[in-house]
User: Fold this.
Amino acid sequence: MSTPGSGAGESAGGVVPEPVELWSAFKRAHELVRTRVVADTAEAAGLSEPDLTILVNLDKAGGALRQSELAASLGWDRTRISHQLTRMGKRGLVARERGDGVTVTLTDAGRRTVTAVHPGLEAAVRRHFTDRLSAEEAEMLSSVLRRL
Amino acid sequence: MSTPGSGAGESAGGVVPEPVELWSAFKRAHELVRTRVVADTAEAAGLSEPDLTILVNLDKAGGALRQSELAASLGWDRTRISHQLTRMGKRGLVARERGDGVTVTLTDAGRRTVTAVHPGLEAAVRRHFTDRLSAEEAEMLSSVLRRL
DNA sequence: TCCCGGGAGTTGACATATCAACAAGCCTCT
DNA sequence: AGAGGCTTGTTGATATGTCAACTCCCGGGA
Assistant:
């Protein structure tokens, strides 16, 4: 299926990839970067990738978020968040309070953990991801990702 | 808000995003697109996303691959592939043969399934992913993803 | 008031992913 | 031949993700 069928709107020099191919490449890149970053960071701190994701997101938001907002900001399902927070709660990284909905808070231990891990995380993300992009690529990628 | 739109190459005033932020955006976009595409395709055919991933990859390779090559082309771990193929083997979608390593083959049922699902998959990927990218963006994304 | 419907969270059962240990084939060196 | 060491694949235990109920709360109508 490599032939376009109709040579509509082909621009010089660049080949517009097939949709499914591009999506496969996207998944593969995600997989590779994720694996490498996790190997370089979470592992060292006794954290899993989802742990780290939640901690970083809460930290970025100032330490507290409504559970539904946390879910939305990650693109996660509500049951996934619920299970994950339950596990993290048992380990003392986060706390939940009922109010108007449920508010999730970083505990002191959680804050200490994310503070300790963040420099290594940033270094790993640079090493395995952003350092491999030019400035223009990073900007374009950022705008594209926001749009999805 | 600087929206590049159709402007090419000009990056006046563009803000290069923070590494961790960009990575979070990447993960979120992956999550959202994945969820939507799966909801529109796999669900209908009784397939999970990993099932679909394997089937499409095998199909693209002509129907057979060494297990380690399959793993490498997806960025998957060997135990993940092994478990996944075991599950799919039980459902008759793929078969394994020992030889120089292990060769994974699409069964007739597997081939029929992927053929049946492919049009819907392509439509869903367009709808939720590539249709939201300009041609230049798709090209650049493709080159960036290959590099990772 | 009662009932209905939707949003938000939880729970338990099952599917998938990860980790550590193991097995088998295949080199090479001695 | 036989002892290491490397690559590939498997297995079982545990962690994480998904699906289908279910609860609880709230805000209309009739």
Q: What stands out?
A: Chain B has one domain: 20-142. Residues 48, 66-68, 78-79, 81-83, 86, 98, 101-102 of chain B lie near DNA strand D (CB under 10 Å from a C1'). Residues 1-12 of chain B have pLDDT under 50 and may be disordered.
